[in-house]
Amino acid sequence: MTSVKDFQVDDPASSDALGRGRFVFTDDYSVFDWGKMPDTIPKKGASLCTMGASNFERLEAAGVPTHYRGVVAGDEVVAVDGVETPPTEMAIDLTQVPDLPFSDGSYDYDTYHDAAGENYLVPLEIVFRNVVPVGSSLRKRGSPSTYGLDLEEWPEGPVPLEEPIIEFSTKYEEQDRYLDRAEADRIAGRADVADLESVAREVNRLVTERAEETGFVHQDGKIEVLYFDGEIRVADVVGTFDENRFSYDGQQVSKEVIRQYYKRTDPDWVEAVGTAKAEAREAGVADWRTLVEVSPKPLPEHVLRAASNLYAAGANAYLGRDLFDAPSIDAAVDRVRTL
């Protein structure tokens, strides 16, 4: 779909056994679900790999099962704390991902689960929200009162929540759909939706705690999970500047910086994407990108450099070590404020 990391299979999963493979993190980026954009952000892939690995190791230490095995350093799989240079490969356990058929304007989850058995990637994203930041889809889907907030309309700035909001959205559909609990439970298959929520809350708690320890505010994020032999394990990548929104000193430190830049500087393309998604929903077309007649503009060099420094400096700060050659987090944040 829109992944900006490559996937390598060493030993494929089967109906009764996990496989083994690797994520290879690239410097590609994607905004508005477009897929690979026309340029790259240096150091981005390594920063996501490093942050993701650190969070997985934190989850494992807290007793949360995951598919993580370590980062790749040379020919070895090691803990991220043991590396001297930023890694770009993560070793993982693999599960089955059956085809999800699409016909007559709908997706066939029954066929997906018939093929999945007891070993599959749950075709959901479980979203947690601690803050409603600028750019959050929550603002489009309801008023503040819908979510228990004593506000008549959404303010320009971020809105903290007293308790995290947990939501479920589709994973493998061309356009993400937010789901009510009953439909999420059906799509999850053998995995119980209450268990998915419980795991998401624990992941959110651990990432939020680390963010607070290092000067960040963890605004929102998501997890993906696999189901194997009755157990739910956290999969994909957790707690990075692409999967989650973080802020530092009031400034976004996440992919949202690039989203907002495109909204300001390439509004024709952003509008075309929104129009195409709406037309595709109306017509029952799976791939909305075929309806977009304009392409996104490349980012200027100074924006790529500022974004690169933000990813690297942010990873350094979150890990608490100078693994990347980057400015301080304060300097990197000050720079993106002016973009």
Topology:
Elements: E1 5-11, E2 19-25, H1 44-61, E3 68-73, E4 76-78, E5 89-94, E6 102-103, E7 106-107, H2 109-116, E8 119-121, E9 124-132, H3 138-141, E10 159-170, E11 178-179, H4 181-188, H5 193-213, E12 217-228, E13 231-235, E14 245-248, E15 251-252, H6 256-265, H7 267-283, H8 301-319, H9 329-337
Antiparallel strand pairs: 1-2, 2-5, 3-4, 3-5, 6-7, 8-12, 9-10, 9-12, 10-11, 12-13, 12-14, 14-15
Helix pairs in contact: 1-8, 8-9
In short:
This protein has 339 residues and is α+β, with helices and mostly antiparallel strands. The protein has helices at residues 44-61, 109-116, 138-141, 181-188, 193-213, 256-265, 267-283, 301-319, 329-337; strands at 5-11, 19-25, 68-73, 76-78, 89-94, 102-103, 106-107, 119-121, 124-132, 159-170, 178-179, 217-228, 231-235, 245-248, 251-252. Strands 8, 9, 10, 11, 12, 13, 14 and 15 form an eight-stranded antiparallel sheet that branches. A five-stranded antiparallel sheet has the order 1-2-5-3-4, covered by helices on one side.
